[in-house]
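Technical note accompanying the year-one report. For the benefit of new consortium partners, we illustrate the data format agreed upon in the data management plan: each record pairs a sequence with a C-alpha cell string. No post-processing was applied to the example shown here.
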Amino acid sequence: MLSDGRLAEAVGWARSRGASYADARWVEREHESVALKDGEIESMDRSSDRGVGLRVLHGGAWGFAATDRLGPASLRGLVDEAFRRAGAAGAAGLARRPVVLAPEAPQRGTYRTPLARDPFAVPHAERVALLREADAALEGPSTRLRRVGVDAYRMRKRLVTSEGTDVTQEITECGSTLATLAVEAGKRPASRTDMRDVRQAGWEYVVAQDLPRRAAAFRDEAHATLAAPAAEAGPTTLVFDPSFLALLVHESCGHPAEADRLLEHEVAFAGTTFLRPEERGRLRYGAPHISITADATVPGGMGTFGWDDDGVPATRTPLVERGVFTGYLTSRETAGALGLPRSGGSARAEGWQHFPIVRMVNVSLEPGPLTYAELVRDVDDGILMLAPASYSLDDKRQNFHFSSQACRVIRRGQLEGWVRPVGFQSLTPAFWGRCDGVADDWELHGFISCAKGEPLQLMRVGHGAAHARFRDVPIEVVE
C-alpha cells in the first residue's frame, strides 16, 4: 500500500497549480483462478497489477492520468499530464457544462472484507481436489462438456483528496463457475451454466456452496431439459428463480437508473435511459409489490465497500418504491449536475488506470411477504424459470428479450416435469407491472463482469432477489 505521503504530495502539487479539486487513488489488484475442463486442468492463472490514478478538476473540466511508475518524477509527470488533459477537454468543448461536485464531508477510515479463511492461502491441491469432485458429479450418460472453476480476487485501495479524505480499503472476493452440456442425436443440446456465484467473502463461501451437490443438480437439469417437450407459446404465468430475477434486475432496473446515462455520458457505448428527472415520484415502474434498492452496505455483496471512488461512504438508495420510480445511481459529478444534495455513492473504477464512472452497487429486488410454496400454490398453469440464457435490450433499457436455460412446469400449484427453454419479450414497466407476488426467500448473487464505459471497464456488482410471480407473460418456444 502506498502510504508514505506520495499521494498527498501529488494532490498538493495539483492544488498548487490551481486545481479546484484533485484526488489520487492507489490500487493494487490480484487474481487467482483454477479451472478444469472434462476432468483435466485447463488453466491455473495468477495475475496482479498496481498503480496510481490522478484526477484534477481545472477550468470546469476533468483531467485524468494514470501510471504504474511511483517515483517522485513520475508523479510530477502525472500531475502535468492530468492538467494537459483538463486543458484539452476545456479547449475542445468536451465538457458541455462545468463539472460541479455534490458536497461531501472529508472521510477517514479503513474498510476490510471480513474473512474466515483467506482464499489466496488455500493450497492449489485443495482447490483442485474440490473441482475434481464437482467435475465427477457433472458426468452423465449424455454429458459432452464439463467445466468447473474457482476464482479469488483482491483489491487494495487508498484514496486521498484535496478536501481532506484519506481512506483505505481491502476487498476480497471468491467464487466458483459450473458449466455442462448434454447432447443426444436428434435433439437440441441442453446446457446449464452459472458464472455468477461470487461473493465478497473468504474460502468459507465456496465450501458452503457445496460444489459437488450443485454440479449434480446442474447435470440432472441439463438431462431433463434434453428430454423435455416444447412448451406451448402464448401468455402464461411465470415464476422466476432468484438467480434469473437477479439478471433481470441488473439489466432492466439497475442500468436505466444510472445517472450518467441520463446525462448522456454513455450514449456511444451503453446508451441512455427512459427514466427522466421529471418522472421521479410519478412514473409507474411496476406493480406495488416491486421495490428496488441500491445498497452498498449489504454484507458479502460484490457492490459492497466502505467508500466509493469519490470518497462517499457506502449508503442505501431507493430506486423504485412500491412500484414507483424514485431515484438514480449517482456519483458526486452526476448528483451535482442533477441538483441533488449529495451523491448516492456509486462512482467506481475497475482499476488504477480507469476514471471512476457511475456503476451499480448491490441493486436488489426487496423481498415480499409470501413463502415460495405460497407463491407456487396459486399457479394453476405456468412455468418456473430456473436460469437465464441469452438476452438483449434496447439502448434505453425499455424493450428487452430474455430466454431461459431450464424450465419446470407448474400445474395446479405443483411442480410437474420439464419443458424446453422458452423466451419472452416485454417493455420494462409493462413486465414489472405484471408482478403479483414476491416471496420472502431473498438471496444475494454476484456478477463479475458488467461492461460499461469507453475505454471499457468490467465491474463486479451484486444483486439480491427472491422468487417472484408474473401473470399473463407471452412466451415463445426457443428453437
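Partners are asked to follow this layout when depositing records. The chain has a mean pLDDT of 95.
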